[in-house]
C-alpha cells in the first residue's frame, strides 16, 4: 500500500515537471533517429534482430509522443493511453514472433559486423534514455510504460550484441533468430505489465 501511495505521488508531481517533458522529447527524437539507422542496417545485414529492434524504436517514439500528449490530462485518460501503448507492445511482440518463424524457414546468416556496430550504437542510445527516465519508473501506468519500454530496449540491445557474437562465431543465423524471439517475449511481458496497471487505475477511477 505504501509503495502504491508513493507511486501515485511521484506520478502526480512529475506530470507538471518540465524536466519530464524535456526528457520525453529527447527520448522521442533519439528513438526516431535510431529507427531510421537500424531499419536500414537490419535490411542491409539481413538481421531479424536488428529489424525487430528498429520497429521497437519506432513504437517507442510513438509511445513517447502519446505520453507527451496526455501528460497533463486526468488519470483516466493517461490510463487509456497506457492501454493503447500496451496494445502496440503486444502487436510488436506478435509481429516479431511471426517474422522470426518465417526467417527460421527461409532466412540466411546475417552480417555479424554490422549487427555488432549498430547494436552497440543502439545500446548507447537506449542506456542514455533509460538513465534519464529512471527517476520516473514508479509513476502511473503511462509513466511506467515509458520506463518499461526504455528498459526493454536496453536489454534487447545487449541481446543483439550477443547475437552478433553468436553469428560471428558460428557462421549461422540461429543466434539472430533466438535474440529476435527473446525481444518478442520482452515486448509481450511488458505489455502485460502495462495493461495490468492501467486496468487497476481505470477501476480506481470508476470506484471514486
TrEMBL record:
Chief location category: membrane
Cation efflux protein transmembrane domain boundaries: 24-199
Highest taxon, organism lineage: Bacteria
Family annotation (InterPro entries): Cation_efflux_TM, Cation_efflux_TMD_sf, CDF/SLC30A
Membrane association type: Multi-pass membrane protein
Swiss-Prot/TrEMBL keywords: Ion transport, Membrane, Transmembrane, Transmembrane helix, Transport, Zinc, Zinc transport
Subcellular location as annotated: Membrane
SUPFAM superfamilies with a match to the protein in the record: Cation efflux protein transmembrane domain-like
Any single Pfam family the record assigns to this protein: Cation_efflux
Transmembrane segments: 23-41, 61-79, 86-105, 117-134, 154-171, 177-195
Protein name: Cation transporter
Gene source species: Sphingopyxis jiangsuensis
The organism's taxonomic lineage, starting at the top: Bacteria, Pseudomonadati, Pseudomonadota, Alphaproteobacteria, Sphingomonadales
